[in-house]
Structure formats: C-alpha cells, structure tokens
C-alpha cells in the first residue's frame, strides 16, 4: 500500500467571477507543482459548465499535503476562494491504484 494522498476539488465560480477564479487557480499550478511532495497538480474545466473547475492533486504523503496547506500560495487561495467560488473537496487514500 502506498502513502500517497489524492485531493479532488470542484470549484464553481460565483456569478461574474469566472475570470477571477481562473486567474487564482492558474496562479496555484506552478507553485504547487514545485512543492517537493507534489506528484501531480492539474487544473481541468468542465466541458459543459465552463464556470466549473476541477483540481486533481496527488501528494507523496500526508506530510506533503500539510506542507501544501501551510504554503503562502495556498494561504492566499484560502483568503480569496470563498468570495470567488463554491467548492467541495475530497481527500482520498489509495485502495486499488495503478
């Protein structure tokens, strides 16, 4: 069994805030990918609902997730996200992962 942790977050822009949300999320990609414990940090947009974005994140372990959450770029995200989007997130442990 691996210690990796997957995070899937769904963010739907509040009315009139799609561009602001996209800019915030775009700003997270490079900084998050540069974290030593990050294995994947991908941003997706829903094909049928363009104001809905999905973050697909993978970390080497829980300590890497905690380091991500303590980072300046994540703290900036936390300060701004509630004004820009409704969000839900799942933090997942592997069961049967290839």
From TrEMBL:
Keywords: Monooxygenase, Oxidoreductase. GO terms for molecular function: monooxygenase activity. Residues 5-98 form the ABM domain. Gene3D superfamilies: 3.30.70.100. InterPro entries: ABM_dom (IPR007138), AI-2_Isomerase_LsrG (IPR050744), Dimeric_a/b-barrel (IPR011008). SUPFAM superfamilies: Dimeric alpha+beta barrel. Its EC number is 1.-.-.-. It is an enzyme of class 1 (oxidoreductase). The keyword Oxidoreductase applies. This is Quinol monooxygenase.
């Amino acid at each position: 069994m691996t210690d990796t942790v997957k995070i899937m977050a769904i963010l739907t822009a509040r009315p009139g805030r799609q561009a602001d949300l996209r800019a915030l999320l775009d700003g997270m990609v490079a900084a998050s990918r540069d974290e030593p414990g990050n294995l994947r940090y991908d941003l997706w947009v829903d094909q049928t609902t363009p104001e809905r974005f999905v973050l697909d994140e993978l970390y080497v372990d829980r300590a890497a997730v905690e380091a991500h959450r303590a980072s300046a770029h994540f703290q900036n995200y936390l300060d701004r996200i509630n004004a820009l989007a409704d969000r839900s997130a799942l933090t997942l442990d592997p069961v049967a992962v290839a």
